[in-house]
Amino acid sequence: MNGRHLLALLIVTGTALAADLPRGTSPPDARVYIISPMDGATVTSPVTVRFGLSGMGIAPAGMEMTGTGHHHLLIDTELPPFGQPVPADEHHLHFGKGQTEAVVNLEPGQHRLQLLLADYLHRPHQPPVFSEPISITVQ
Hints:
By secondary structure, the chain is mostly beta strands. The chain has two helices and nine strands; from the N terminus they run H-H-E-E-E-E-E-E-E-E-E.
């Protein structure tokens, strides 16, 4: 791990420090969306969720590159505070290696999915780039 990545790790783990740094910016036409499954779909678990992005690029977490970010999949939760790093738990899945799809295990029932793009320190951009939520039913 180089010094820049170590610094990024320290900043992410120190929420107050990360909140003090300028957030990554996004262009006004940036858009993130769920390609599949479709809103209202009935699926079986595990579920493959494909992420879409336009107006920006993908870069791994920890790599500061203008006009880029990485995906976070929100499951059965609301958007987190935009001034803080995205939490890391079963409701906030991080794709910091630059992944553009995920296979997730979901219990049977209805679930709400939403994407949130974040900068190299896992913070939502300014302005934030997030998808419309979708609902799916897992059989």
